Amino acid sequence: MVFHLDTSTAVDLMREAGRGACGPAHQCLAQLPTDALVRISAFALIELWAGVFLARRSQDEEERLRNVPDLADAWTPDPEFARHAGSLVADSHRRGRVMSSFDVLIAAAATSDGAALITRDRDDFAAVPHLKIVSYP
Hints:
This protein is of the alpha/beta class. The protein has a single domain, classed as 3-Layer(aba) Sandwich (Rossmann fold). The chain has 7 helices and 5 strands. The protein has a 5-stranded parallel β-sheet with strand order 3-2-1-4-5. Strand 4, helix 7 and strand 5 (132-135) form a beta-alpha-beta unit. Helix 5 crosses helix 6 (101-112). The longest helix is centred in the middle third of the chain and has 14 residues, at 81-94. It starts with a strand and ends with a strand. The model has no long low-confidence stretch (mean pLDDT 92).
């Protein structure tokens, strides 16, 4: 099975690693099947890099972010992706629940890849049709 990391999960993993602790995000990954493929979308990576450039201690954050490829392979969109993401935007508007641009792109990446999304922000993605969510406290 394929799993995508949400930005919140990547942040949690980096913080836990920085503390040398096995917290909820690491525990969640440890419970995945041994043959699981763990990926992170280019959109989650963009959101993470934006955080690095906005951080007061950007060098420390950049060092942590450079270790993310050890946790997950990068996923990039194919030509059909824009159509799929656009349909999620339209669907969220019709339902009266407008999602952030990054959340739409991260959800569309996971569903396009047939992946479950690992996130601590379950409510941000609950309305996305066909998105499997794995959450942790």
